Amino acid sequence: MGLTKVRIPDGYDVWGRHYVEHWALIADTSYPAGGYPLTAADVGLKQIQSAEIVAYNALAAQLGVDAVFDGMYNRLVFRKGGPRVVAYTPGGGDVLASANTNQLAADQAANAANGAYIDTLHAVAGGAWAYSEDAEPDCPRNVCISWQADAGGDTLPTIATIVVTGSFRGIAKTETIVQDFTGVTAVAANQFRFGYGLQPFDTITNVVITPIAAGQNGLFIGVGIGSKFGLPEDIAATGDVYKLTKLDADLSPANIVDATYMTVNFGTVALHDANSIHFLAKGEVDAGRNLAVVGVVARFIGI
Predict the structure, then answer these.
(1) 106, 52: one domain
(2) Cys bridge to 166: 30, 60, 105, 201, which one at CB 3.0-4.6 A?
(3) Is the same domain home to 188 and 246?
(4) Structural domain span for residue 18
(5) Overall domain count for the chain
(6) Do both 41 and 93 map to the same domain?
(7) Residues 158, 183: one domain?
(8) How far is CA 164 from the centre of its chain?
(9) Residues 6+ apart with CB under 8 A from 109
(10) HSE of 97 in the Cβ direction (CA atoms, 13 Å)?
(11) Parallel, antiparallel, or unpaired for β 249-251 and 275-281?
(12) Alpha helix locations (H) across 200-242?
């Protein structure tokens, strides 16, 4: 059956240059793992920029479930009622070194820590570069894209668009990373530039970078890991991460927790660092659960 979608005509509005749509969304008898797919076209838009659940029917309250729109995967996810305390140690307390500071504008004498761990630096040749995997992330992390000039110096593309394909929590996903080198495309001999994505990946299956042309011949490009560690379960808000430790010292969660992409940014991490995260999770309902006639009203804002 899938998700039943019913547009609420009286909920239509225009806010500035954005359209507002309200839809009643009704679950079925067998909840799919990862949630119900829900695209912009399904709700009368070209692009969803924000979504909010604004009402539930009585059955949702009786079953103790709520819902959230997962903009990373374009899915409506139903969650179990009541937060649970989860303690998580990335990599089992033994992680690879990494950093998370973009260095796109100025040459660097060395690459980022493990900035080419996933795909070691290899050259653009004949105006082309192709991803060639050497390793997977040691635990769910964001991605680093690194560049190195050869002995004669090289030129970066003005704006590089990087599409990363892989998975997180076993669900296929992509991320588009934009690295802007406007006005700073020249890289001196044997120097580096690097930058990071925002989203975590368990696995990476492909990386495509455009534009790459003859002007980039001689540049070396690598794919590595960052220090934004992906949470094993969703949080509802940044404040749900209530305790962090880094090398047994307390770390403030302020400004380093991302409730959109479900990450915690540990900054500069050394090899074998032991870091821990304590948070309140509201996990997804079990796949196959009967949610027939459980309904929500969602407000979508977009273009």
Answers:
(1) no
(2) 201
(3) yes
(4) 4-81+284-302
(5) 2
(6) no
(7) yes
(8) 10
(9) 191, 192
(10) 8
(11) unpaired
(12) none
Buried b (16+ CB within 10 A) or exposed e, 250-283: ebebeebbbeebbbbbbeebeeebebebebbbbe
Reference 73, options 162, 186, 172; nearest CA is 172
Same domain, 250 and 291: no
- Tell whether pTM > 0.70: yes
CB 224 within 8 Å of CB 112: yes
Any residues with CB less than 8 A from the CB of 210 and at least 6 apart, and which? 160, 161
Does residue 190 share a domain with residue 261?
Answer: yes
- Residue 151: CB atoms within 10 A of its CB come to 8
Question: What is the secondary structure of 139-195 as a DSSP string?
Answer: SSEEEEEEEE--TT-EE--SEEEEEEEEEETTEEEEEEEEEE-TT--EE-TT-EEEE
Chain centre to alpha carbon of residue 134: 22
169 contacts 202 by C-beta, under 8 angstroms: yes
Task: Encode the chain (303 residues) as per-residue pLDDT tens digits.
Answer: 799 999 998 878 888 889 999 999 999 999 998 899 999 999 999 999 999 999 999 888 878 788 999 988 899 999 886 678 899 999 998 999 999 999 999 999 999 999 999 999 999 999 999 999 999 999 999 999 999 999 999 999 999 999 999 999 888 899 999 999 999 999 999 999 999 999 999 999 999 999 999 999 999 999 999 999 999 888 878 999 999 999 889 999 989 999 989 999 999 999 998 899 999 987 788 888 899 989 999 999 999
